[in-house]
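FYI - complex with zinc ion, inputs then prediction.
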Amino acid sequence: MKTLIKGGTVLSTTGGSAADVLVDGDTIAAVAAPGVFTDDAADQVIDAAGKYVLPGGIDAHTHMEMPFGGTFSNDTFSTGTAAAAWGGTTTIIDFAVQAKGTTLLSTLDKWHEKADGNCAIDYGFHMIVSDVNDTSLKEMETCVGSGVTSFKMFMAYPGVFYSTDGEILRAMHKARDNGSTIMMHAENGIAIDELAAQAVADGKTAPVQHSFTRPPELEGEATSRAITLAKVTGTPLYIVHLSATQALAAVAQARNEGQNVFAETCPQYLYLTLEDQLGAQGPQGDSFEGAKWVCSTPLRSKHQPHARDLWRGLRTDDLAVVSTDHCPFCFKDQKELGRGDFRKIPNGIGGVEHRMQLIYQGVAGGQLSLARWVETCATTPACKRAATALSGSARS
Ligand SMILES: [Zn+2]
């Protein structure tokens, strides 16, 4: 089956130009000057006049059916990937989540069971390592052989996903030796848990406290520490869901010094704020309304320059990728678990369907070029996707 997409403006990492695209099966066979292919070259012709034609979006950070705080994020691989497709995203990279006391390989099997045969688009996995021990360190190599080439660790969530600096160091040594990348949730979870406990003891239990107790300084500190550990071990590092000016500064400095450090941000940090969403009042002045926007890292204050700096980081490539951290929970019965104690609100919000459009809004607003839109949302994460697909983990 051949499809000709003609008359559109084809976008790439060098910008846009008039071109026609010939697709053979699920492979792009040619991008040619307008008119090179006639309509009878294809079984199906799509008229793209007045439209952009761009590579399929790749969302490198999603959580379908993810267990968290006694519940599960409520998109399945089926519903979540259908939503992604509607929004122009043709590949997701989700996370297999190792629970403490279980192995990485049984975890990967479990996640393939959830996803295989249920996805509307291509997919691959990163592996969350939450139990660093001799077995899981050894298993990292087998994971790489199975196409999982990135391992996510947490400096936050003590007692759940948290790893000590020593454990991170051990995993980084392994990653360096087997050619994989360490992804880091960089927030100082020990300090955050203390601030959160103090807030609750003072009777401050509303969702807005979620951000007040996770200040940007503690994201900046953890990001710097992760970068230092990566430097000491000689390991590639990818900082996930970067939200704060302080963290961006640390990444920019490391990149300027030539260190192999990358970072992503997410649309919520570019558009939503502590004041307008997390601090929102619901009907009858219910301050719990803000639970809808509890995610980690948290939304930041609009009175600080975080969002402006993140847009700049996307322009200058200090931020290489825009992903969503898609992890939706219903308000009723899920977010409501944290009524009276913001610490119990499941962390996460949705976005997999809207990422491409939201970042295009930055192009419309003059903050980003068309080329950077394509790079941050499609072609840069494609490098990761290609590595995964080659070794067989991305299945559709
Ligand atoms: Zn995440």
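Residues 61, 63, 325, 327 surround zinc ion (CB under 6 Å). The two ends are 18 Å apart (CA to CA).
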